[in-house]
Amino acid sequence: MAESSVVVGVFEDVDQARQAYDSLRAQGFGADYVSLANPQEMDRPQLDLRYLIEAGIPDEEARFYAQEFSEGHALVTVRVAGLPPASARKAVALLQGHGAYDAHAGRERRGPYAPNIRTEQPSPFFDLTYPEDLAQPASDQPPSHRQEERPE
């Protein structure tokens, strides 16, 4: 089983997805860790498989999520790479508590939910760096003013 650095929740009800997203944010998961994809609010209800795979979702699972999305189901994703394992477990519990299922559990919710998450992998996402910063030696770069929200 391929490991994943992203926990995904599929929701048949978009209101449940919004509640799950709001709960995750209220529990300290930053906007750069959590996202909500609602096919009803997009011009075309289709996800780019390459984006899902590059985000750290195994290929077969990415195909499952793209299919669910194309059928009108909302997705909530939580980037768990680099987070403490307790935070990843909290994200899974919150998603399940709001009625989510994933590629492992399926719509029938028979299998385990997110059995393959891996938090110790480096994050597949990167902070934005301006080209002029790359040209300066590290000692000449101004200190970062951005503080990343990180759940405990």
TrEMBL record:
Residues 101-152 are annotated as: Disordered. Residues 143-152 have a biased composition (Basic and acidic residues). This is General stress protein 17M-like domain-containing protein. It comes from Thermogemmatispora aurantia.
